[in-house]
Write a structure and sequence with these properties.
The protein is mainly alpha-helical and about 140 residues long. Helix content is about 85%, strand content about 0%. It contains four helices and no strands. α1 runs antiparallel to α2, α1 runs antiparallel to α4 and α2 runs antiparallel to α3. It is elongated. The site of protoporphyrin IX containing FE has 18 residues, from α1, α2, α3 and α4.
C-alpha cells in the first residue's frame, strides 16, 4: 500500500495541532498585556505561555517533516514547475518566522520586557489566520 495517504493525513493532523497553538498563544498575549500590573495573573500567564509554546513547537516540526517527506516521495517531481508550490513554501517560511516571533514574545513577557499593547496583540493574532487561508487555498486548488 502507498504511504502517501498516511503522509498527507499526518501532515494535516500536525498542521491543525500547530495552528491550535498559533491561534491560542497570541490570545494569551492579549489577556496578559491587559494584566501585567496584577502579579498573580502575570505569573500564571508566563507559565501558560511557556508551556503552550514548547508544547506546540514539535507539531510545527512534524508538519514540515511530513510535508518535506511528500516532496521527496514525488510531489516535488509533480509540482516543482508550478508557482503555487513555491508561494506555499514561501508562506510556510513566513509562518515559521511568526512561530519564532511568538517565542521571542514569550521571553519578553517572562523578562517583564513586553512593549506591545493588547490592541497590537489583537491584530497580531489575526496574522496566522490570513496565512492559513492563503496556504490551504494554494495547496487545495493548485491554481497556477
Ligand atoms: C515546509 C512545510 C510544508 C511542506 C514541504 C508541505 C508540502 C506539502 C505537500 C508535498 C503536499 C501534497 C500536495 C498534493 O499532492 O496535493 C501537501 C499537502 C497539503 N498541505 Fe502542506 N506542506 C507544508 C506545510 C503546510 C502548512 C503549514 C499548511 C497549512 C497551513 C499546509 C497545508 C496543506 C494542505 C491543506 C494539503 C492538502 C492538499 C490536498 O490534498 O488537496 N502545508 N503539503
Amino acid at each position: 500500500m502507498s504511504p502517501w495517504p498516511w503522509l498527507k493525513a499526518l501532515h494535516l493532523i500536525f498542521m491543525v495541532s500547530w495552528f491550535a497553538g498559533l491561534f491560542y498563544l497570541p490570545r494569551l498575549f492579549v489577556h496578559h498585556a491587559m494584566s501585567t500590573d496584577e502579579p498573580v495573573l502575570d505569573e500564571k500567564f508566563k507559565v501558560m505561555e511557556r508551556k503552550l509554546y514548547y508544547f506546540v513547537t514539535p507539531w510545527m516540526i512534524f508538519t514540515v517533516v511530513f510535508g518535506t517527506w511528500m516532496l521527496i516521495a514525488g510531489a516535488w517531481a509533480a509540482y516543482s514547475s508550478m508557482m503555487w508550490l513555491h508561494i506555499k513554501l514561501l508562506l510556510v517560511a513566513v509562518l515559521v518566522g511568526y512561530h519564532f516571533w511568538c517565542g521571542k514574545l514569550v521571553k519578553d513577557f517572562r523578562d517583564g520586557k513586553n512593549t506591545h499593547s493588547h490592541t497590537w496583540y489583537r491584530y497580531f493574532n489575526e496574522f496566522p489566520l490570513l496565512l492559513l487561508v492563503a496556504i490551504v487555498w494554494l495547496a487545495v486548488f493548485k491554481p497556477f
